Amino acid sequence: MEQETAPVVKRVINVIIDFIIIGVIVQILVMFGLGYTLTQLAYIVTIFGYYTIMEAKFGKTVGKFVTKTKVVMEDGSEPTQKDYALRSVCRLIPLEGLFVLFNNGKALHDSLTKTRVVSE
Questions:
Q1: In the predicted structure, residue 65 carries a pLDDT above the cut 90
Q2: Cβ–Cβ under 8 Å, residues 48 and 88
Q3: Are 55 and 84 in contact (CB under 8 A)?
Q4: Confidence grade of residue 118 (pLDDT, cut at 50, 70, 90)
Q5: What is the rounded CA–CA span in Å between residue 116 and residue 71?
Q6: How do the domains of the chain map onto residue ranges?
Q7: Are strands 69-73 and 115-119 parallel, antiparallel or unpaired?
């Protein structure tokens, strides 16, 4: 049975929740007195680590837990850890998330990795 692709509104909610969490993590790191360059590096590492660890361990992030969505391959199978890591790398492409608005609800990190986010 084919799983229903998550609506764009759920994708946006996922991003908002996940970026609040990422922002909190980075702010905690900034409290250790990181300069601008190290703060930017911490932000990149946090984005990569958060998404890779959460998706590889649970198949979803905190945002996806809230919206009851998860990541699957285009054929419906479960992604590998490599697929999750590649999704995380693709998220670092500037403005990649805007593709959700113009690509039938599919972000660039979905298209490039042949994954999709589905409703549970």
A1: yes
A2: yes
A3: yes
A4: very high
A5: 6
A6: 8-119
A7: antiparallel
Residue keyed to tokens 């945002």: 63
Q: Which two tokens stand for residue 86?
A: 């590649």
> What is the distance between the alpha carbons of residues 60 and 110, in angstroms, rounded to a whole number?
14
Q: Which two tokens stand for residue 14?
A: 């996922």
Please give the full DSSP string across 52-111, using - where no structure is assigned.
HHHHHHHSS-HHHHHHTEEEEETTSPPPPHHHHHHHHHHHTSTTGGGHHHHTTT--HHHH
**Helices 36-58, 81-91: crossing angle, 10 deg rounding:** 150
Token representation of residue 60: 């979803």
Place of tokens 């670092």: 92
Q: What is the pLDDT of residues 48-64, one digit of tens each?
A: 999 999 999 998 999 99
Give, for 40, the enclosing helix (H) or strand (E): helix 36-58
Task: Tell which phi-psi region holds residue 53, choosing left (phi > 0), alpha (psi between -120 and 50) or beta.
Answer: alpha
Tell me the two tokens of residue 44. 């990149």
